Amino acid sequence: MRWGGFEELDADWYERGNQLEQDWYTISAADPVEIYEYHTTIGRQTPAVMGKVADQPGAAPRIGPPKFQYYNPTGLGRPERGRLLGHWQRKGGVSSTP
How far apart are CA 57 and CA 69, in angstroms? Predict the structure, then answer.
């Protein structure tokens, strides 16, 4: 896991808060994609670069406060799959899972 960020409320917050582009997550309009959170436990000091998420041209405006991400080219730990946030459909966006 080379990139890390902050936990969001649900799939809709990931979409609008981080300006996710639908085309990144689906092969065709008919193929929904499950969206999961992943987490890792860092057990020792780990250097990382922190960057601010910038508005992306052509994407809907972000909501909420500025976001920060963390990056380490050698990794931040082994990712473990967490909760299912919802499904991404190219036509219709995210359907959140309660």
Answer: 19
